[in-house]
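Researcher: Please translate sequence to structure tokens.
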Amino acid sequence: MKSYRMKMEVIILKLQEIIELKKNTMSVPMLRKLLGLGKTDSYWLIHQRRFESVQVNGRYYIKIDSFEKWYENQTKYKKVDGTPPGKQLSATSYSVPEVAAMLGVRDDTIYSRIHAGAFDTFLAEGWIRITKKSFQNWYSAQCRLRTEADKLLDSDVIDSSISLTDAARALGTHRNNIYELIKKHPAEFEIVTVAGRKRITRESFEKWYCGQSRYRFIASIESSPSCEPSDCEKAESETVVDDSTTGNQAAPQATDKPFYTVEEIQLRMSLSKKEAYGLAQAGLFKIIRVGKRYFIPKDSFDEWLSISQIQKEEQ
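Model: Translation complete:
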């Protein structure tokens, strides 16, 4: 009787173990059904120890909590019910295609950065992952590649500012002189940085321009400040003043326009728009490029036109 009771207790314990095991594990057929895998692929995962498993009476049982942890840290295998994988993995890292999409570049560009040691990486099911922390550190330290969100922010800043190069072209001076102006009068210029490049806000540039008399615009461009010249500027506008320091010249009177636009040349010579731009780019006379626009000094164009007419008459 005692022996019988002991046997029953052992059986009950084993049954309890089996019940507990089934609560916390899944069988191989269940794994196959869950991931939509074949028998060989299922056992391959088990033998690779991607998650914890136990063997009872020759059968494998996969621990559910270990499986779920593995599932959240990989993206190669997906559940048939549509539950997305890699939740934990996505919280701490990016895939190469994800980084490429964020920056609007090809995957090859990101791989070249990886080979250069720009990011901390690791492998997840054979795929390279970039840690988010290392990506943020790299992104903050460079200015060449920008995310789409930052590009939108940059466009707003660009619209309300002018580059130092465009400022120099508009004033007919060298860019170094603009740097000197900013250095000598830091309080007058508000500087913003876009993708690592310094720009002057249009508001501060216009305020500075209208409050000085030394520099004059060589062309009435779209980005030029619209303000009345000072009394000093009106007096200087009657003559051309040579600035030996910067090489900048004050503009002549408004009635004696010092430049032509491409559109004016187009109308004057009865050309198509394409022909007019082709003529401007041919190097036959001097041109000044400000942003995307071309301005042709009047003296240079008139001289070329006169020579061309004389040559035609001689022919």
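Researcher: Any highlights?
Model: Residues 234 and 253 are 9 Å apart (CA to CA).
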